[in-house]
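Q: What does the assembled structure look like for these inputs?
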Amino acid sequence: GENVEQHPSTLSVQEGDSAVIKCTYSDSASNYFPWYKQELGKRPQLIIDIRSNVGEKKDQRIAVTLNKTAKHFSLHITETQPEDSAVYFCAANPNTGNQFYFGTGTSLTVIP
Amino acid sequence: DSGVTQTPKHLITATGQRVTLRCSPRSGDLSVYWYQQSLDQGLQFLIQYYNGEERAKGNILERFSAQQFPDLHSELNLSSLELGDSALYFCASSAKVAGELFFGEGSRLTVL
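A:
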């Protein structure tokens, strides 16, 4: 089955700096890569996603890049703000089924 | 509000007991997923149903079982509970294959 690895597990940045979280996947059949944000005590919520026919997608301060050849994708947050502090999960969805494989999460802290 | 409803929100019980967690997906969503999130851990996939049928199974213990009913709501049954079963259990639904997952608020289970 699919295996998703996520790094780093924790990340601290100063407010206004950029944050980058990286994930790798193993199954070349995976074609959908969402990112979820989970604030403390809350449910995970989708913040951005990318499909395998696209190399990059941007939504305001958030961008995701995908390298299918290397089987890795990354989340980029620019001009970080304290409200960006949360746990971020990447996921991969193989075309063979509907199962989502999640990374282990990155706890992001934005220091004011 | 994601449109996914989970009950109960909190549940405290003793070892050896059995509990049932309930999930109502978003209107029209046929897929229901169950995830377990232990303290400071990632999202462990348990099981997925699609229109009443089991579609995928993850690391679900034999003491756990689930089903999806004709009205599409789902129940996760946890029996012979152990201390290690204490966790936040999320239900999520999606409308299509490789589509956005909408998570409920979770059911926090504490086993004493």
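Chain B touches chain A through 22 residues (CB under 8 Å).
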